[in-house]
């Protein structure tokens, strides 16, 4: 199989590679307004299924149909908070290194693990974690809907009418980020253990990875998959890192590493966060996706720099309140969704379950309960992970509501069968595809990442 380096040479020959730089004090109560780490093993031995290995030379041909320009327009993904003013890109900001030093911080972004996605482990973890046959059937129906709505070029589109659906399903989104949509769908398949070398959706995952490879603009700062927004960069990097971590396909390694490198470059050096454009002062929602992508890279044994993680802690300090129990968007004014993001980031950055802020924040999330609105899908996604990692009675109460609500709201009619849609501003941008991917990812919580504290994978501090 051709290596990724051969792929790069082919792209250069075709003239398709773009090079260049791109640019409170705690209060008395918790209130907020709504304004076992192990190296990843392969799920399937790729040596046993050579016909399914990615042929990266094909990407060069596909890239001719989706060529990058030197500058990509800013586009909107489903927003998780009020955006506020757009901050211009600052090309002079960001760590720049060819391959950063390995992530050696003992308690930083360790644990979780993807080993639960193995078929045998998956069934056991569903039973232990509070899932059931109905939740697993809902996941499978959701994945089938996603597979049917994949475009011929391997991508997914938030406007699912752009693909084979042709209007048979209602509620298309209006976001134009194909890398973001493709990554969200891929993450749903990967979350259940389906890869391009094994599982029930080999061709769907393979073609989606081809598409991401063809859309990557390889710059001196890494592989740019933004299509105008760092949301998409984080999501696409997560998908590439998970696909590599689960299969160890050498053809994916360099692309996944370069995608990580671009995230490192795009960090706001002063504040430590990320926002829509590289170098812009951060917000919690975009920062959360980048940190999750870096965690995926670390689990896949790719190179992730400690200084980047230390700087992200600095950003979280700036937007926390109640000594780290609650989190805001760009300021310490707390919000439910950003609190869920902040707490999960703190968990992966080494805060133990005995940390007072973790317990206080989790109690706050549990008291709120799962949201039934479209704009709460993002909140549910992060809060479900926080409470699952902690376990206990708060998780059991949350899980019963979340699980049963998602099962009962899944569509069973016609071409929409297997999908979800919840009215709201987020679903206007992301549409039925966004809602479906987020619902599937939330229902995969039982096995998608191994519980941090119960697996003994993280040291408290």
What's the layout of helices and strands?
Blueprint lengths: L3 H11 L42 H7 L55 H11 L3 H16 L29 H14 L10 H14 L1 E3 L2 E3 L5 H18 L2 H17 L17 H16 L6 H14 E2 L4 E2 L8 H13 L7 H13 L8 H14 L1 H18 L15 H19 L1 H4 L13
Antiparallel strand pairs: 1-2, 3-4
Helix pairs in contact: 1-2, 2-6, 4-15, 5-6, 5-7, 5-15, 7-8, 7-9, 8-9, 9-11, 11-12, 11-13, 13-14, 13-15
Description:
- The chain is 48% helix and 2% strand.
- By secondary structure, it is an all-alpha fold.
- It has one domain (53-68, 93-416, 423-448): Alpha/alpha barrel (Glycosyltransferase), CATH 1.50.10.
- The strands form two sheets. Strands 1-2 form a two-stranded antiparallel sheet. A two-stranded antiparallel sheet has the order 3-4.
- A hairpin with a 4-residue loop joins strand 3 and strand 4 (326-327).
- The longest helix has 19 residues, at 425-443.
- Mean pLDDT is 80; it is low at 1-111 and 456-461.
Task: Summarize the model shown.
The protein has 461 residues and is mainly α. It has helices spanning 4-14, 57-63, 119-129, 133-148, 178-191, 202-215, 230-247, 250-266, 284-299, 306-319, 336-348, 356-368, 377-390, 392-409, 425-443, 445-448; strands at residues 217-219, 222-224, 320-321, 326-327. It has a single domain, classed as Alpha/alpha barrel (Glycosyltransferase).
């Amino acid at each position: 199989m051709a290596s990724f380096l051969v792929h790069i040479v082919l792209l250069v020959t075709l003239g398709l590679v773009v090079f260049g730089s791109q640019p409170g004090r705690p209060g008395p109560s918790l209130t907020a307004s709504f304004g076992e780490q192990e190296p990843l093993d392969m799920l399937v031995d790729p040596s046993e299924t050579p016909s399914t290995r990615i042929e990266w030379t094909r990407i060069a041909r596909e890239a001719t149909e989706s060529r990058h320009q030197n500058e990509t327009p800013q586009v909107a993904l489903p927003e998780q908070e009020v955006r506020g003013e757009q901050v211009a890109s600052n090309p002079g900001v960001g760590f720049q290194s060819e391959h950063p030093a390995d992530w050696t911080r003992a308690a930083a972004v360790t644990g979780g693990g993807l080993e639960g996605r193995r078929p045998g482990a998956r069934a056991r973890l569903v039973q232990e974690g509070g899932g059931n046959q109905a939740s697993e059937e809902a996941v499978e129906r959701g994945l089938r809907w996603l597979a049917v709505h994949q475009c011929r070029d391997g991508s997914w589109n938030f406007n699912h009418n752009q693909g084979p659906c042709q209007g048979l399903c209602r509620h298309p989104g209006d976001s134009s980020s194909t890398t973001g949509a493709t990554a969200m769908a891929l993450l749903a398949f990967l979350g259940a253990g389906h890869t391009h070398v094994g599982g029930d959706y080999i061709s769907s995952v393979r073609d989606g990875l081809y598409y991401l490879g063809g859309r990557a603009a390889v710059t001196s700062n890494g592989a740019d998959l933004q299509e105008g927004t760092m949301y998409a960069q984080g999501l696409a990097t997560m998908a590439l890192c998970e696909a590599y971590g689960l299969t160890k396909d050498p053809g994916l390694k360099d692309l996944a590493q370069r995608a990580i490198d671009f995230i490192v470059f795009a960090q706001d050096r002063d504040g430590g966060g990320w926002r829509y454009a590289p170098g812009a002062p951060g917000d919690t929602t975009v920062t959360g996706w980048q940190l999750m992508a870096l965690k995926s890279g670390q689990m896949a044994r790719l190179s992730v720099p400690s200084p980047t993680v230390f700087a992200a802690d600095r950003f979280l300090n700036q937007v926390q309140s109640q000594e780290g129990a609650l989190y805001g968007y760009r300021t310490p004014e707390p919000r439910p969704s950003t609190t869920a993001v902040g707490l999960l980031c703190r968990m992966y950055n080494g805060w133990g379950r005995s940390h007072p802020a973790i317990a206080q924040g989790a109690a706050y999330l549990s008291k709120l309960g799962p949201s039934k609105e479209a704009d709460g899908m993002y909140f549910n996604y992060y809060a479900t992970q926080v409470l699952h990692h902690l376990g206990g009675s708060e998780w059991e109460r949350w899980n019963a509501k979340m699980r049963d609500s998602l099962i009962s709201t899944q569509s069973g009619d016609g071409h929409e069968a297997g999908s979800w849609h919840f009215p709201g501003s987020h679903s206007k941008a992301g549409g039925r595809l966004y809602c479906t991917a987020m619902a599937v990812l939330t229902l995969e919580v039982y096995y998608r990442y191994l519980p941090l504290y119960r697996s003994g994978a993280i040291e408290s501090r």
